[in-house]
Amino acid sequence: MKLHRINALLIRNLYLYKRSLPRLMDIFFWPVMDLLLWGFLSVYLNQLELGAPNLVTFLLGGIVFWGFLHASQESVSVAFLEEVWEKNFLNIFVTPLRLSEFLTSTVLVGLVRLLLVGSVMGAVALALYHFNIFQFGFYFIPFALNILLFGWLVGIFITAVIFRFGTSAQVLAFGVLFLIQPFSAVFYPVSALPASIQWISYLLPPTYVFEGMRAVIATGTLPFATLGYALLNNAIYLILVLWFFYRMFARVKEKGLLLKLD
Amino acid sequence: MSSTIIQVKNLVKKFGDFSAVGGLTFDLYEGEITGLLGPNGAGKTTTIQMLLDIITPTSGEIRIFGLDMKRHREEILVKTSFSSPYVTLPGNLKVWENLKTFARLYGVRGIDARIRELVSLFSIEDLLPKLTSRLSTGQLTRLNLAKAFLNEPKLLLLDEPTASLDPDIADRVLTMLTKVQKERKVTMLYTSHNMAEIERLCDRVIFINHGKIVDDGTPEELVKKYGHEDLNDVFLHIARQETR
Fold it and tell me: What pLDDT, on the 0 to 100 scale, is given for residue B244?
């Protein structure tokens, strides 16, 4: 992989962010709106004194980590869709750019966006609700990396689907995470789900992240087993998603679909 | 004798039952400008896209600079470039942002100096701060050509590069292409429906139809062979032969 080519696409995406209101709103407005909604709901539930310790922290931790997942997935998908909307695939793939470099650059765009979204959400949560995301200490890092990785993998999967089946599938980029949200234990534990569907939750890496986050808040210790399951699940998805992505790209080249993406 | 830049052997591309390219074999030599001609649907664009590794051939072999495209894509494409008025650069970037992005993709050294040289060559200096979406068709074509020369290519694939230019700019582009070819021995594969342009620019012409080579020679040889006044009549002769 060549750094200058990854850098080229990363900077190309950053050029867009600095003058695009919708992109800036994705970072500075919508995540804050989410946080306000769920934050005030959490405060209200706390006032009801339902006898659930750490309720506000659980909910705010959930919404902040969910924001991370959403930001990492969407930034990968949107960086790809940017090339689709601008019909730029022929331009970039007649250069020596490798597929792995293209993927790496979209992932880095996601990382930049995540740092911005994380900073904004962390600052607002601290200012309004006295919720400090770093209260998890170093435990925060492995959970954040797992959620980030899964977001990227979902983004890459959606990219592969759009590559192969065209822009009619682009709706996935903005909604697919909501399909898994009810099963990911974001705001409630897996035990709250009917026993017959809990197996779905255990197939999803975010479940272990959110369960682990609640364990850290409740006990102050890192549940290594939960973290291990998150990593294992992510590793399996990583292999499957990359295989799927390369397979779809090969099919696109066989069928001559690269120029027809619009 | 000039060295071989492109070697194509038995190149086939099928989309399901439809055969877009049906066994092309040809060589292109260093410093040669070759016109790839044929009616719409003849297989020109598919052939160019296979040479750029945008479409995977069904069978056959492509060697460029003596290297197999399947195994040496990166080494080949770093010295190759492409321009078509039908493939525009992202409209939501400014002209200088687009040029810098592609210069970085090609690993160009001295990016700013290279961009200054090319925008001067194509008379688009004033466009640098403009959004690409605000450019006229002719300006976009010149920008595409400037982009195509960023990496100082040894092989240039040009798909109807003057299709939307006024005669003045088209003439300047052709003059510039001739100059570059003489100075730097750039090999060019050129498609166009403007036969006067082909006669002026190309050392050699390959006619294809239905994905197969119909004829191959210098413009003068082909005009003489078919007994017509110019290449335009030769084109009509070949294109209509099948439909008679």
Answer: 42
Q: Say if CB B143 and CB B98 are below 8 A apart.
A: yes
**What's the pLDDT score for residue B203?**
93
Task: Please indicate whether, in this complex, the C-beta atoms of B105 and A86 are within 8 angstroms of each other.
Answer: no
Instruction: End-to-end CA distance of chain A: give it in Å, rounded.
Output: 28
Distance of alpha carbon B161 from alpha carbon B142, whole angstroms: 9
So what's the pLDDT on residue A161? 93
Closest CA relative to residue A245, chosen from A172, A153, A180, A171: A153
Q: In chain A, which residues have their Cβ closer than 8 Å to the Cβ of B105?
A: 4-5, 8-9, 92, 95-97
In a domain, B56, yes or no: yes
Buried b (16+ CB within 10 A) or exposed e, A2-30: beebbbbbbebbebbeeeeeebeebbeee
Distance CA A30, CA A65 (A): 15
Assess if residue B174 is contained within a domain.
no
A256 reaches B (C-beta below 8 A): yes
B50 lies in a domain? yes
A115-128 pLDDT, tens digit each = 888 888 888 888 88
- Residue B17 is given by DSSP the state T
* CA distance linking residue B243 with residue A201, whole number of Å: 63
Question: pLDDT (tens digit, 9 = 90+) per residue, A174-223?
Answer: 888 999 999 999 999 999 999 999 999 999 999 999 999 888 888 888 88
Best of B100, B105, B152 to disrupt the A interface by mutation (most A CBs within 10 Å)? Answer: B105
The predicted pLDDT at position A252 comes to 93
How are beta strands B187-191 and B67-68 bridged, if at all? unpaired
User: Same structural domain for residues B191 and B70?
Assistant: yes
User: Residue B177 domain-assigned?
Assistant: no
Shared domain check, B69 and B24:
yes
Q: What is the pLDDT of residues B42-95, one digit of tens each?
A: 999 999 999 999 999 999 999 999 999 999 999 999 999 999 888 889 999 999
Average pLDDT over residues B166-172: 84
Interface confidence, given as ipTM, is 0.90
Option in B13, B74, B101 nearest A96 (CB) = B74
Q: What is the DSSP letter of A136?
A: G
- Paired strand residues for B12: B22, B59
Q: Which helix (H) or strand (E) holds B37?
A: strand B33-37
Same domain (yes/no): B105, B67: no
Closest in B49, B80, B101 to A12, CB measured: B101
Parse chain A into domains and list their residue ranges. Answer: 3-260
B144 and B198 inside one domain = no
Domain that includes residue B114, residue range: 80-152
Please give the C-alpha separations between residue A196 and each of A41, A94, B42, B189, in angstroms, as whole numbers.
Answer: 29, 50, 59, 63
Domain count, chain B: 2
Domain with B2 in it: what CATH number? Answer: 3.40.50.300
Chain A residues whose beta carbon lies within 8 Å of the beta carbon of residue B102: 8, 91, 95
